[in-house]
Every structure is written in C-alpha cells, then in structure tokens.
Amino acid sequence: MGVLVKGEWRVEHRWSDEDGAFRRGDSQFRDWVTADGSSGYPAEAGRYHLYVSLACPWAHRTLIYRALKGLEDAISISIVDPLMGDEGWRFGDGPGCIPDPVNGARFLREIYTRARPDYSGRVTVPVLWDKKTATIVNNESAEIIRMFNDAFDGLAANHVDFYPPDLRARIDDLNAVVYDRVNNGVYKAGFATRQTPYERAVTALFATLDDLDARLADRRYLCGPRPTEVDWRLFTTLIRFDTVYVGHFKCNLMRIADYPNLWPYLRDLYQVPGIAGTVDQNHIKHHYYASHGAINPTRIVPLGPIIDFAAAHDRARLSD
To answer: Which of 48, 51, 56, 119 is flagged as catalytic?
Structure first.
C-alpha cells in the first residue's frame, strides 16, 4: 500500500490516526458526465473507461450499476489484481483480471499521474476515465453510480431508476446512516489500532444492522417494493460481511446469516439478474486476507465459509 505525494509514490502502511481510529480521505476527482454535455463531459458510447477491483465494495457499486442499467457495451472496463502490495493496485493477468487497453498502465497510480502529474493522495478504485480528453472524470463511487443511473440512461439497455424523485429524501437519509456505520463502519473496526475506537465502530455497526433488519421485516427493500440506490450501496458490504468482515475485521457479534431478514434480503438482491456475475468471492478473500499484512501477518487466505447465496428467500411476498 502507498500514497502519491506530488506525483511521487511512497509506501505507507498506516491507516489510522494518533488515537487509533481509521479516517477515510475524500475523493479528489469530482467532475460529472451529463446527458447534454453541459459539464464538458457528454454521455457518449465508447468514450469512458471504468477502472475497478472485484474485491473493493466501492468499485463494486459501479459494476452493479453498469450491469443493471445494461451499459456493458457503452462503458469498457479494466479489473486490477486482487492483491494490493507496496506498489498499490496493479494490472495482472490472473483469473478475473482485465488489463488496461486504454493507457497500457502497469499500476493504477499511473492513471492518476497521467490525469494530474502532481497528484497527492490515495490511489483508489473506482476511476471513471475519459478517453477523449485523457483524464479522470471522477473517482467517487457514490457520484459515478448517479451518473450511470441518470446521465447514461439514454445509452442504457435497461431504463430503471434507482434514485426516483419521490424517494430521494428517504434514500439520502438512509445512505448517510448506512455509509457511516456500515459501509465505512466495517473499515473503522478493521483498521482501528486501539480498543476504544474498535469497540465504538462495532457497537454502531451492529446497532445499525439490527435497525435495518427490523425495517426489512415488513418490506422487501429498504424503501419499499423495489430496490433503490441505498439497497445496492448496502449490498456490497453485506455480500462481503460473513466472508471477510466477521473474521478479518473482527465484526463478529453476529453474521449476516444470523439475521432473520437481512440474510434473505441479501440473497434476494444477489439473485437479481446480472448481480451474481459482479461478485467474485475469490478476489474478495484474496484481497483482504493477503493484502493487509498488519491485520493478517501470515497472509493465509481461509477456504471458507461456504455460503449459498442462491438459496430460496421468499422475499417476493413482501412486494404485494
């Protein structure tokens, strides 16, 4: 792992502050693709390239939207190797990896310095690259999925709206809680280096999971009978939870499989057409267990758990 400082790569293994708490930095590339091109970046088929990791939950959001909206032919992708070592994300040729046909880069950091030679900060996925202007448009997953949902709708094979106007306030409120306590909450627990911030993160995480489980008792999805943005943002954490976060990040008060509503809800989302193809548990496990030497010094990747996400869930009854 490392960081760019004025375009120069430096190896860095520290994820927490002086108090032992994990702090996530803000994404720095925040331009937008718009349907009419008023932003300077018009939605055009074949113009944009998406750099992702199959292991990363943030990048996974963008792969889900690309699949659900039917944008595979409009937006090309590269997939990095699951192992992130001292050189950062790299492009490999292992199973599930796709090299970089656009820039021919060996490491993801090269994409950042081509866009901004003096860039300082973390080198993260996802990255939405504009082939025409040869720069990064955006590296914030929450914004990229909004673009895929709206700006690229004219290019999409499936015209489904995951951020409908009548539900936006509710979605935004739930997103804020899910991001802070669940999506980022597992990282606050896993990368904590002192007991107090770890316990604070785990307590908030499971209190929120309890609330979400209760919310799902009488509704199929978090905002009603159809999945919305908040469901897919939650999904990418839940699908990794029992595989990685329970053991590797010490989020072990309960498994998702122990929840009466979250567990069938997770299977319901997984079984939506196109979603299973975006999930690669081999990449997920190898990234976390083999990349985080400070947490798992032996870098041994566990064989289990064996989880049947394709099992029947009986959630459709709540759509009535």
So the answer is: 56
In this predicted model, what pLDDT tens digit does every residue of 158-197 receive, in sequence order? 999 999 999 999 999 999 999 999 999 999 999 999 999 9
* C-beta of residue 125 within 8 angstroms of C-beta of residue 89: yes
Residue 181's φ and ψ, nearest 5 degrees, are -100, -20
Active-site residue, from 51, 187, 221, 270: 187
Domains of the chain from N-terminus onward: 2-155 (3.40.30.10), 165-274+306-319 (1.20.1050.10)
The residue count for the chain: 320
pTM, 2 dp = 0.96
Model confidence band, residue 15 (pLDDT cutoffs 50, 70, 90): low
Active site residue 187: yes
Name the β-bridge partners of 50: 77, 128
- CB-based contact 2:10 (threshold 8 Å): yes
